[in-house]
From TrEMBL:
Keyword Transferase: no
Annotated InterPro entries: ARM-like, ARM-type_fold, HEAT, HEAT_type_2, SSU_processome_comp_20
Keywords, comma-separated and alphabetical: Repeat
PROSITE patterns to which the protein is assigned, alphabetical: HEAT_REPEAT
Keyword Repeat: yes
Start and stop residues of the HEAT repeats: 266-302
One Gene Ontology CC term in the entry: 90S preribosome
SUPFAM superfamilies named in the record: ARM repeat
Full protein name: Uncharacterized protein
Length: 335
């Protein structure tokens, strides 16, 4: 068959990548890029040589990626940009293949998370919960640093591969201080990026991070405070992106976790409903509030209603415009 005939090419192409740094990357980037593309197809076929070769490909691909991004190599101009994208895609494939071979599951991660002490340090968390990756811990730090630089470049050509690689790392629930810092940047870009596609990808990645990672309550609260703060962003597109993420949080968070933080979410949303100049954003805030009401228990709904009762009944005859608007907003929420 074609697949059996292709099997001998897997180690040949792997050697090409492994020795790619021994010659000028500038002269060989087209060959290396083509080799990565071919391997991207052949490794998916689960050929006899695929598993052996895929286990050795991670470090040389990272080395090629460093060569593309190196300061001394003039950035990632021209063909280097293609090779750089090819390296990102190759690493996505290697991580996904490694994930498939190890049969990882959310249940396994949750079982391990239950063994984690509440006061565990980041190093202890990494040691207990991280599963082996195609790269060593030291190499993963290098990769995350390169990803940090890549997402800040705001390059349309690279964005799909870059965020695809971040998604694949999140899917493995890889834990490190550097990766947590990268998630902070992803959250910032979910609002500040001028490209809608990037804002959407960042929202998806950060939501998966919030849902799947073993975050302590204090860290979850910090992230939620930042999301709530983002709904006040100066530009409408950014506010809408933050509101979409907040709506996803109120819809998908476990009820107990949502109830724990519902007051943190509710009060800023009501104020934004009062103050936002955009009718589209006000509608998005209203939808988010309705999602919050639908996904918390009766006791918490009564607590939130108490706030609205006080707003409606508070004040005297000499009220400011914002107080009157708050009363009208509370009446609308009751409706």
């Amino acid at each position: 068959t074609i697949q059996s005939m292709a099997d001998p090419f897997v180690p040949m192409l792997t050697l090409c990548i492994q020795h790619g740094d021994k010659a000028s990357v500038q002269q060989n980037n087209e060959i290396l890029f083509t080799s990565l593309q071919c391997l991207g197809i052949l490794l998916k076929w689960n050929l006899p040589q695929s598993k052996i070769c895929s286990q050795t490909l991670g470090p040389p691909v990272l080395k090629l990626l460093q060569g593309c991004c190196g300061v001394g190599n003039g950035g990632a101009a021209g063909g280097k940009q293609d090779l750089r994208m090819g390296c990102f895609k190759a690493l996505i494939l290697l991580i996904s293949l490694d994930n498939r071979d190890r049969h990882l599951s959310a249940q396994t991660t949750e079982q391990q998370s239950s063994k984690l002490p509440k006061d565990a340090s980041m190093d202890e968390t990494e040691e207990l919960l991280n599963t082996p990756m195609p790269l060593s811990p030291k190499q993963m730090k290098v990769l995350i640093s390169l990803l940090h630089s890549a997402i800040l470049e705001n390059t349309e050509q690279l964005s799909s591969a870059t965020f695809g690689l971040i998604k694949s790392i999140v899917s493995r629930r890889y834990i490190s201080a550097e990766f947590y810092d990268l998630m902070v940047v992803v959250l910032k870009l979910s609002v500040q990026s001028q490209k809608e596609s990037i804002r959407q990808q960042c929202c998806q990645i950060f939501l998966q991070f919030l849902m799947d990672y073993p975050l302590e309550s204090k860290r979850i609260e910090q992230h939620l405070r930042q999301i709530v703060l983002n709904i006040q962003y100066e530009y409408q597109d950014g506010r809408l992106s933050a509101l979409n993420l907040l709506t996803s949080v109120t819809t998908k968070f476990p009820t107990a976790l949502l109830e724990e933080h519902c007051q943190l979410l509710f009060l800023p949303m009501v104020l934004q409903l009062v103050n936002d100049s955009s009718s589209e954003c006000r509608q998005a805030v209203a939808d988010c509030l309705m999602a919050l009401f639908r996904n918390v228990g009766v006791e918490k709904i009564h607590l939130l209603y108490d706030y609205m009762v006080r707003w409606i009944g508070g004040g005297d005859g000499d009220e400011c415009a914002q107080s009157l608007q708050l009363k009208r907003t509370s009446a609308q929420l009751f409706g």
